[in-house]
Amino acid sequence: MPSALITGITGQDGSYLTELLLSKGYTVHGLVRRSSNTVRQRLDHLTGDVSVYGQRLFLHYADLDDITTVRRLIIKIRPEEVYHLAGQTHVGASFDIPESTCEFTAMGTLRLLEILRDLDPKPRFLHASSSEIFGRPDHWPQTESTSLNPVTPYGVAKAFATQMVKVYREAFGFFACNAICYNHESPRRGESFVTRKITRSVARIKHGLQDRLMLGNLQARRDWGFAGDYVDAMWRMLQQDQADDYIIATGQDHTVADFLEVAFGQVGLDYRQYVAVDPKFFRPTDVERLLGDPSHARKTLQWTPATKFPELVKMMVQSDLQAVAADRVS
Q1: Is 26 annotated as catalytic?
Q2: What pTM does this model have?
Q3: Does 58 reside within a domain?
Q4: pLDDT for residue 8 is more than 60
Q5: pLDDT tens digit string along 262-298?
Q6: Annotated active-site residue in 154, 168, 182, 230
Q7: Active site residue: 129, 130, 131, 186, which one?
Q8: Which domain holds residue 83?
Q9: More exposed terminus of the chain, fewer Cβ within 10 Å: N or C?
């Protein structure tokens, strides 16, 4: 039975990856920050299953800056695969907390690599990178060889971590990969992210609990995919004969306005009647058109995203409609 360690297991990607690995017969260990909320809704269906939790799924408390504890846990667990998903992942928030963003997203990755460097044998390692490393690219779509040009604190931190993974792969013989993930969403996305903010507001407006939605740049373009598809690509990366970096994207981009149109359309409303632009939601600097070319993943991993953009938006709206309705009943 293979074993895996997931940092950031309680997040959106961590929960989908946990489900995937368990379905493939893995024993899964997850690192949970000591300050993390004890209510972990994304994992409740697993931690509440006595046939899974404590049998094939284990959670361990440790912060990435607590080197001794993390090292001790990894030596005890001896995972065959490590999926590093943890870090401060909110791009907008990184302008307000740049130091902690770099501390956990950049230095946290380096600390983890240093721990793994001393192990023999070393586990296979995946770092969840981000399209934000490209910032303002000089060509579209972006490939694995596109020059890095981050323009946000989060992008800078991710660029550091991404380059470090490459250094350790080449200098120390690591089987280490960067999954350069473009925006990926799901009903499990945090409510502070624009996509979930939209779908949650659509549900509340439909139920008469809200009458306005304030957003920033409606013309910002993103390559949006489904998180459940993206973690499948992550797993496939660690099953290859050779380690490499991969763009994980759909190859299609849409504006925030496109997202709004599909989301409000699910409940028969015109978003223009409910959405207003507020300059305070504009970022000090923002990425330009980020559009990924997933050809390398398609050819090498035999991976293609299964969920189309309209399906993703519909999935998120329907989930929030059900959640808001349930809250009203309770």
Answers
A1: no
A2: 0.95
A3: yes
A4: yes
A5: 999 999 999 999 999 998 888 776 666 899 999 999 9
A6: 154
A7: 130
A8: 3-185+224-248
A9: C
